[in-house]
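Dear colleague,

Thank you for sharing your sequence with our group. We've completed the structure prediction you requested, and as agreed, I am returning the results in plain text so they can be pasted directly into your records. Please verify that the sequence below matches your submission; if there's any discrepancy, let me know and we will rerun it promptly.
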Amino acid sequence: MLPGITESPSLHWSTTGTQPVTETLATEAPLAIEIAYHRGEQVVRRLLGVTMRTPGADEELAVGFLHGEGLIRSCDDIAGGRAAGQTVRGETLPTWIVELNHAPREALERVSRSLLTSSACGFCGRPSLEGLPTGTVTSTGQPLWDPALLARLPEQLRQRQALFHATGGSHGAGLATAGGEVDLVREDVGRHNAVDKLIGAALQAGIPLAERALVLSGRASFELLQKASAAGLGLVIAVGAPSSLAVDLAHQSGITLIGFARDRRCNVYTHVARIKI
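Please find the predicted structure tokens below.
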């Protein structure tokens, strides 16, 4: 069985009758994300929050989360990482601790979640949106994209979503090259977690994000555009619709935002200059 899958007994009903079956579900479980760093001779360990995620790629999730929050700029800021069975508060929870080379530049009070973050929300519990990193992405040196190619990318992403095919219960995020290949994919029950895992994996692999497009299996929300902006991604393409704040942020950040990319068509909402039209 694939990792991230749980089996559950179920009763299948249809107009022809009922029968007991075993269903496969996308696993949802908590993960505490912490940082540790030295302050003089003292080791400081801080809990940032608890997210509901699909287990697997926890290190990538933590790295992507820290990058999106502005706590790290690259993997050069990271000394190491480790799993733990308890949080710094003594709670028995799966925990990933990112060991930093230096104290974070951001005020942790603006980052730390005071509440459990559900799989549906990336900013829940954050006391303020102030201080969230957003970049200005320029088109200089970035590729021009063929709209016919772009409209096919979400289907290519879906074909590589093994967890979705097994359960129907996960979101996907992928990185695409200008040549039309989705070459890196991550999945999770939370759309924001899928993007954090993807960006974390790309940072660890040294992939130049300015040359890639972010492909989303669902809608394009503000939080996902914020993560794309912080990562320097110049193009975001989604199967579904963008929100109004996502469009506003794409305008401000210089991101080309595309929605409703399916059935050999798509809508370009911002910065059309990257598209070969």
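Summary note from our side: Residues 125-129 have pLDDT under 50 and may be disordered.

Kind regards,
the structure core
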